[in-house]
Amino acid sequence: MEQRAETELSPYRVFSRAEWAERRADTPMTLRAGEITRLRSMHDRLDMSEVEEIYLPLSRLLSFYVAATQGLFRAQQGFLGTEDAKTPYIIGVGGSVAAGKSTTARVLQALLARWPNVPKVDLVTTDGFLYPNAILERKGLMERKGFPESYDLPTLLRFLSDIKAGYRPVRAPLYSHLVYDVLPSQWIEIDRPDILIVEGLNVLQAGRLPKDGKAVPFVSDFFDFSVYLDADEDVLLSWYVTRFLALRGTAFADPKSYFHRYAELSDADAVATATSIWNRINLLNLRENILPTRPRADLILKKGETHQVEEVALRRL
């Protein structure tokens, strides 16, 4: 009886993988196997069935949401008597390190861009809005990289505000995972897309509200829909360590890599190093800042050990 009461009070409707897959209906598969291989990150095991059973139903749902939002925008135009340009529909993708955010964001971009009306879909990551390493070192924040205080929040908020205002083009700074730093004087231009996907660790962060009631914008205030990638802590650790081991022979092997010093570690030393980094930084960030934002998401994708989504929770309207 208690479990039933909790379910009835939950703001989410929860679907098993099979139940969610049925919501695909007649949504066509527009990606080929080779494209799916290129879209997934190194440690993910994204395959055709994952796209068909999880992401195609999500694409169908988003098509309804985008159409409804556009209809509401036109109704507001009529009410206000304005001729404002249509603003981009913004989708936020958040979750822990190693949860698969990048893969999810890229798959959604590819699927949404192939809707019949062929919308323009852009993707940015909040990594570019991290403070440069020189500033992080000066502030003593290198061990807090990825925590909320390590981001240039005013610049990120200004970027999102300009996007929603319909300005064109709007620049977003670029980040290199190879050198582990923001690239100076390099950026991507976002030129009034129909849909913008924003991916990052703390995109659903709300922060502390002011006691004086003054408006304080949060990144998530600019989202029309948000997705949280969820997995148990021990599973995330396992994925992080596996990825760290694999990177020794790929990205870490490049002499330009910030993590080149880890390339020659033995398996045992690499596992110990990765576990230490995880517990000291990523797990702390997950527990303090990322996991508390999960209830703010419109959709939660719960993954199991195999990287497959086992359960989907959709916020009720």
CATH topology: Rossmann fold
State the name of the first-level CATH class: Alpha Beta
> Which secondary-structure class do the elements indicate?
alpha/beta
Question: Count of helices?
Answer: 9
What's the helix-strand series? HEHHHEHEHHEEEEHHEE
- Bin the strand percentage: 15-25%
The CATH superfamily label reads: P-loop containing nucleotide triphosphate hydrolases
> Roughly how many Å apart are the termini?
25 Å
Mean pLDDT figure = 92
Spatial shape: globular
Task: Catalogue the unreliable spans.
Answer: none
- Can you name the CATH architecture? 3-Layer(aba) Sandwich
Helix content: 25-40%
Number of domains: 1
The main β sheet shows up as:
7 strands, mixed
Describe the structure.
- There is one protein chain.
- The protein is of the alpha/beta class and about 325 residues long.
- It has one domain: Rossmann fold (3-Layer(aba) Sandwich), CATH 3.40.50.
- The chain has helices at about 1-10, 15-20, 35-40, 50-80, 100-110, 135-140, 155-165, 235-245, 265-290, and strands at about 10-15, 90-95, 120-125, 170-175, 180-190, 195-200, 225-230, 300-305, 310-315.
- The mean pLDDT is about 90.
